[in-house]
Amino acid sequence: MARAKRTDRAEARRRYRASQAAEDATDDSSLDNAGVADGSPARSSTERTAPAARPGLLGAFSGSIRRPDLRADLGYLPELIRNKAVWAPSLLTIAAGAAVFVPGVLASPLSIVIPLFVLQAPMAGPFLAGIWAPRASWLAGLIVGLISAVISSLYVLVVPVTGVAITAAQRRDFAINYLVVFPIFSAFVASFAAFYRRFLRVSNQSAARRAQERARHGGSQRSAERPSQRPATARRR
Question: What is the pTM of this model?
């Protein structure tokens, strides 16, 4: 009787192990078939539940927009004047303006650089002001544009133009146009430069975060796949 009981128990254990092996094989085949059916490998639960990352370009664009605080920016004016965002472009503008009054300079290769600061809508000076300004970039560009407008107005009012008949009223109109347009235009240029600087910084930070998240998810996926592969290897052995 005892031997028969031991035989029955051994037979029951063999049947149980056989049924468990059949269930494991069925589960593995169903997972493989599911991966083949949808054309993508099986993903871990952490990967499936990972939140979708915000588009980098859109996030960087929206994160770079700043609404100017006029009262705070005007209060920052004394410190802004001492910043290189104002005095460095201003010195470059003054140097370009001084060169304009030298005869023959506008006929030299410097005529390519000088209009970026004076005589035309200034671009270089306000752009540098916006890049360097820690805040109130529009105000820094406005100051640089005002200096350019004053120099350009003096040139139009003082320097005679050869070959073109310009009346005193026309000279005055040109000077007024410079004094009105140049500061406003320079404020917009400096604001764009500050926006571009923030856009580059935010986009680089977003790209670095996305790279870290991809590396983290890749590491967690590999660590999740390794334990599932070990029992299969053991069963093959």
Answer: 0.61
